[in-house]
């Protein structure tokens, strides 16, 4: 972290709408708060699998009908309050459960390893495609379309797409996911603030006010002017 700045790591997966909310708010605060924001693309499937054994049935919230019903309203309200264009409907739960984000998260990881300046816009574009335009981000042609949208050349995008099956990228995503677990993550987004020599884990996009309080920064709402 830069001098005197608090390192804040955001572990996220683009299949998670709450991760998108948290991502956008932290992007807005990265120049307001004295923080060094580090994006850590991880794999939600891996987190759910690893914690399932311990939290007897750490099932995705959408599996419980009442909770799914609540989540639908909750995400709509939060999207409006956070000013993030998440579009959600009932059939999205099936869509999410049926979509593997592994390819997309490996592609984002390859970008992080080779072209980190594209990491923020690329991640955002994946969320837009999946949560606003309801596209299947597991398809290679859609992954390439996302890359082109953020200004990557076709050659580079193709090269990155080939990288997603390489051991280097697979291991990096696995390591990042394991790191999130090591900090105590059981879902996404997982935000880790390194403050006073220790890591502080915050789960969800609605705990950023608390994060500010812990690191001594003022919360100005989800859309600070």
UniProtKB/TrEMBL annotation:
Q: Catalytic residues? A: 16
Q: Which InterPro entries does the annotation name?
A: DSBA-like_thioredoxin_dom (IPR001853), GST_Kappa/NadH (IPR051924), GSTK (IPR044088), HCCAis_GSTk (IPR014440), Thioredoxin-like_sf (IPR036249)
Q: Which UniProt keywords apply?
A: Transferase
GO terms, molecular function? glutathione peroxidase activity; glutathione transferase activity
Record domain DSBA-like thioredoxin: where? 8-213
Q: Which GO terms describe its biological process?
A: glutathione metabolic process
Catalyzed reaction equations:
RX + glutathione = an S-substituted glutathione + a halide anion + H(+)
UniProt EC number? 2.5.1.18
Q: Which GO terms describe its cellular component?
A: mitochondrion; peroxisome
Q: Which family does it belong to?
A: Belongs to the GST superfamily. Kappa family.
What is the official name of this protein in its record?
Glutathione S-transferase kappa 1
